[in-house]
Specification:
Structural class: alpha/beta
CATH architecture: 3-Layer(aba) Sandwich
CATH class: Alpha Beta
Strand order of the largest sheet: 2-1-3-4-5
Helix content: 25-40%
Radius of gyration: 15 Å
Largest sheet: 5 strands, parallel
Order of helices and strands: EHEHEHEHEH
Shape: globular
Number of helices: 5
CATH topology: Rossmann fold
Strand content: 15-25%
Number of domains: 1
Length: 160
């Protein structure tokens, strides 16, 4: 049986809810990816071209700082990595997280929450932030909250 780490970034709580349920049904460890400076409501106003999230997402090299770096990645074989979809991809802080750790040889499976978008460019945008020996795959994008049974059904298909 694989040792699972469920790491997630959540700005509004939906992805956090998903990650907690996934950790529960997989028995995996749970880790929140937190920015050094928390996002405010104004920071997340995607309609404002000067909003922090908009500025970060327009700059592919942007790497928001993390609050700390103590994720137990060394103890895991599989990383279930969750985030909300921003501008058809993962928030740049997810790249920051991936670049902080040695993920060589790990299986990374993405899950995302979205108001309507799919993964679009997320996989390609994130692959450049990990070792070539790490395996990264699209998992699932959900629109709205799911119950634990739905997450169990999905994780059962992963062969963990």
């Amino acid at each position: 049986m694989s040792k699972v780490l469920v790491a997630y970034f959540s700005a509004g709580g939906v992805t956090a809810d998903a990650a907690k349920k996934i950790a529960e049904v997989t028995g995996g460890a749970l880790y929140e990816i937190r920015p050094e400076t928390a996002y405010t409501k104004a920071d997340l106003n995607w309609m404002d071209p000067a909003a922090r999230s908009t500025v970060e997402m327009k700059d592919k090299s942007s790497r928001p700082k993390l609050a700390e770096g103590t994720a137990p990645v060394a103890e895991s074989d599989v990383l279930l990595l969750g985030f909300p979809i921003w501008w058809y991809t993962a928030p740049r802080i997810v790249n920051t997280f991936l670049e902080r750790y040695d993920l060589a040889g790990k299986r990374i499976i993405l899950f995302a929450t979205s108001g309507g978008s799919g993964f679009e460019g997320a996989l390609a945008d994130l692959k450049g932030s990990v070792s070539a020996s790490a395996s990264m795959e699209e998992g699932i994008v959900v629109h709205g909250r799911q119950d634990s049974a739905a997450w169990k059904k999905w994780t059962d298909t992963l062969g963990l």
